[in-house]
Each structure stands twice: as structure tokens, then as C-alpha cells.
Amino acid sequence: xxxxxxxxxxxxxxxxxxRLINEGHSVVGIDNLCEPDTxxxxxIRLSLxxxxxxAIADARPVRSTIAQFDFVKLDILNREQMLSLCxxxxxxxxxxxxxxxxxxxxxxxxxxxxxxxxTGTLNMLEAARLSNAKHFFFTSSSVVHGKLxxxxxxxxxxxxxxxxxxxxxxxxxxxxxxxxxxxxNLPVTIFRLFNVYGSWCRPNSEPMRIAHSISVGxxxxxxxxxxxVRDFTxxxxxxxxxxxxxxxxxxxxxxxxxxxxxxxxxxxxxYLSFIQSxxxxxxxxxxxxxxxxxxxxxxxxxxxxADTTKLESELAYSPxxxxxxxxxxxxxxxxxxxxxxxxx
Length: 344
Ligand SMILES: NC(=O)c1ccc[n+]([C@@H]2O[C@H](COP(=O)([O-])OP(=O)(O)OC[C@H]3O[C@@H](n4cnc5c(N)ncnc54)[C@H](O)[C@@H]3O)[C@@H](O)[C@H]2O)c1
Hints:
Elements: E1 2-6, H1 11-22, E2 26-31, H2 39-48, E3 62-63, E4 69-73, H3 79-89, E5 93-96, H4 103-108, H5 110-130, E6 135-141, H6 165-184, E7 188-193, E8 196-197, H7 206-216, E9 220-223, E10 229-230, E11 233-234, H8 235-247, E12 258-263, E13 269-270, H9 271-282, E14 288-291, E15 303-304, H10 309-315, H11 323-337
Parallel strand pairs: 1-2, 1-5, 2-4, 5-6, 6-7, 7-12, 8-11, 9-14, 10-15
Antiparallel strand pairs: 3-4, 10-13
Helix pairs in contact: 1-8, 3-5, 5-6, 7-9, 9-11
């Protein structure tokens, strides 16, 4: 297949492209390499995919030295460039991962979150429609489960009560995806991801923040007296699921070609146990500090994990990695690379 991956220099984008090129697909990856603090990490991810970071310049394709992969520094907000890229390449599928993430950040920059996550998704849907792409794959987030949701979070939940602009922008993008499937018969699959972690993880993700605080000896802040339940999903599981989904776009007779799945390990993990597993794997004790802020005001639920019944029944797939097995892999990677190849 010939595929476009947006957010190619990001955490999930890196792992996705790595798998796709190993399976022999031809991939074009785009990213605008935004957020100055994370550019170094993004360039490392690209170099691991065979892209020479020195050769990257606006809108100039750079060919990978190891696979059928081209990287182009482009911004999804440039609708004309997205249209011509997709028109010229006629991708079989578009995997749209580019986004800005984080509830706290979205409070600071609400319009940027709306522009990139919502309008950016609209631009990619429009490019997919006009270039006759056969499948549009989009990653939404568990954060769309707002005030009215209760764990385990299911696709049937009412998600129209977002607790942050990150949630609102992703929920709006989900609705645009549905609209394109319904109005234009564009096959769409959405994965709502629950706390993904693994090597080359996003610096502002929970596992990275915990590992970083433990390593440098600063407190790990916990809310709600430490009573929080979370779903942690290993990145290999997400990529496996994506491959399943790419091969099986939804085709239900009489319905629009649209499928949305909650994707998590679906095992409720006490937050303090997750911290403990990272401290054990790093071999450094964590300093825990209580934060009395109300979870809802931070856009957080006390209990949050996925109901994966639909994923299992419709896609015949479910994540398999338990945190007890995957955290040591993540921690080993962190130990080997933090302050060697990247800093936070
Ligand atoms: N990692 C998780 O735990 C998690 C959980 C839920 C949802 N998601 C979603 O999965 C997707 C990938 O997440 P990630 O963890 O890899 O994030 P990431 O921040 O590592 O990657 C996103 C990439 O998008 C790029 N980008 C941002 N704005 C862009 C623009 N205007 N044009 C082009 N590129 C742009 C960034 O430079 C970055 O490399 C996102 O849509 C995110 O919302 C991730």
C-alpha cells in the first residue's frame, strides 16, 4: 500500500512508520516539527527511520536511506499543500496522527488546539476525499470521555461534555470524521487511545513525566490522595491494532463506512502501582507529593479505562501487553537514552 502518515516525527507516528516500512509499504510522512522543546527528539525519531535531519527543509522531500519512506516538513494547516500532496500521490490510506496533545496545554492555547486538532483534521479529510483515498485512519483520545462518562469507558458513552479544549477539539474532529464517512462515503476508522507509552515516548505524557521526575529526584505529583485508576497501553499494541484496522475498513450493509473503537489494555491499573513499577525498573525511589487540586478541574477522571468489547468483537483484536511486562522495556529504553540522546 501507499500511505500518508501525518505527525510522522511524533511518538506514535515513529512506531507506525517503523512497522509499515518493515512490512514493505511505501510511506510518505509529514510533520511540521512544531514545539521547539521537542524538536531534538523528533529529529532523533526521524533519523532512526533513515532520514538525515540536516537535509530537512520546508516542503522538500527527504528520502530515507533504509526504506521506501519520504519525509516532508509540512503543516497540515496548509490546506492547499495537503490537497496537492494527496492529489499527486493518490494514497491508498491516510493515517492522521498530527495533533497537539495535553489538557493543561490546551487550557493555555485553546485556539491553537482547535486549529490544529480540528481544522487540521478537516484539511486532511478534505484532502482524502478529493484524492479518493480508500481509508482515513484517525487517532482520537480517551480525553473525549468527559463529565458524563464512567469507567469502563465505552463507545456508547455520551461524550458531549468535554472537560478541556484538548477533549473538545478531538471530539469535534471525531464528528467531522463521521460527517465525511456519512456524506462522502469515505471509509473512516477512529481509535480513541488510552495513555500510550513505549520507547521514544512524548515528553509530556504521564509515563515520561514519572520516569523523568524519578530520575532527577523531583516529586511525582499525585492527585486525589493517590487514588486514580488508569489504562496504560503499550505502543506495540496500538500499532498492531492499526494494522488490523487498515486491512479491514468498516463495511456494514446500509451504514456509512465508519468505525470508532476505544483502544486500551482495558485493565484498570492503580496509578501508584504504575509509579511503583517505574521506580522499581529504574532502581530509584520515587518522591510522592500530594496535590489537592480537584481532578475534574484538571480535566481528569478518577477512574479511566477502556471497555474494549467492541474492538474485540468487530475487529477481532485486543491489546495484550500488561504494564508489568512493558514498563521494564520502557524504563530500560529511558535509562539508556535519557541524558544521552535526549533531555526533557
Ligand atoms: N500518546 C498517547 O498517549 C495518546 C493518547 C491519546 C491520543 N493520542 C493521539 O495520537 C496521536 C499521536 O500522538 P503522539 O503521542 O504521537 O503525539 P506527538 O506529539 O508525539 O506527535 C504528534 C506530531 O504531530 C506533529 N504536528 C503537530 N501539529 C502539526 C501540524 N500543524 N502539522 C504537521 N504536524 C503537526 C507534531 O510535530 C508531532 O510530531 C495524536 O493525535 C494524539 O492526540 C495519543
